[in-house]
Design goal:
- With 338 residues, the chain is α+β, with helices and mostly antiparallel strands.
- It is built from eleven helices and twelve strands.
- A seven-stranded mixed β-sheet has the order 6-7-8-9-10-12-11, sandwiched between helices. Strands 3-2-4 form a three-stranded antiparallel β-sheet, with no helix packed on it. It has a two-stranded parallel sheet with strand order 1-5.
- Helix 3 runs antiparallel to helix 4.
- The N and C termini lie far apart (68 Å).
Amino acid sequence: MKKKLLLDEVADMIEMVSDQLEVHYNTETGEFDFNNLVEPSLSGEDPKRFANKPWIAAPSNWDIYEYGMMADFSETVTDSKKSKPLTVALNGKGAFRRFKEVLHSVELIDEWYKFRRGAYLIIAREWCEEFGLEYQEGGRESEPRPAQSLENVTLDSISIVPISSVTAKRAAEILREAFAWSYDGNNAEQEMRKMLNPRRIALVAMTPNGHVVGIIGAIPQYGTTGWELHPLAVLEEYRWRGFGTALLRALEREVAAREGITIYLGSDDEFGTTSLFGEDLYDDTFGKIANIKNTGHHAYSFYEKHGYKIVGVIPDANGHGKPDIWLAKRIASQQPSL
């Protein structure tokens, strides 16, 4: 016998819907699955299966109508100094990006996400009732959703989609695990909140059951020609299996689509995993870079494998003898003549 749907979990699934991703529910197994509209091959089995029973579609972007949510939220803001710029932001092309930028500037981003969550819970309730699905009000289960077993998770079954407020919470846990020395307390959540800024690119890798296993992001610099890659992290049990590569390639496509030319990143050596550790890099800087050795699975080798070049270092960036290694890659499809 299937358990009742938890309304919070239904809302989580609906929040993942986008122009690139559909969500479907199997009325026989009680499981959700995803259909990647941009790259159908990432949807696992034949996506045509979703057109037949026992599958039913979650509300589409058109049904959700987030623009209406934004307009409704603006009407709840009583401070005219904050409500007026929100209302103005909703006019014309690029309203979603402008609205979120204003939310950050007037410090209403937390209130917006609470309001938005309530709206998604209403949509989830109405969807359950429309299809006669039994559901339970209230919070999530005390036990987290189990991760899909490793042997059943392949690159073909992974979906890479834009981050949402729901997946950002799960991505924060990955960030803490991957960079425990840098992220503790609430700063991982704060980093994820920054990644929700519409000016940035932020993508997550998800298994068919909605388990987030990796994250990648980029920040526009130098206008939009140069993008700083930050961060890239994959759950430990999913590393060395191609998920990081898939995320990197997806990010490169997104940056290229925004007319980016170069992606660059800094990769610290704080723990002696390259031959540059402990060296005075103000002496024979480029000679030492040319003869760099990977002595402990440092990430620079991963990036070199995918076409990135070491373009410099910041000596002592993390303390004496602890450099930041900078890599970059040109991703523009054509190089204009000078």
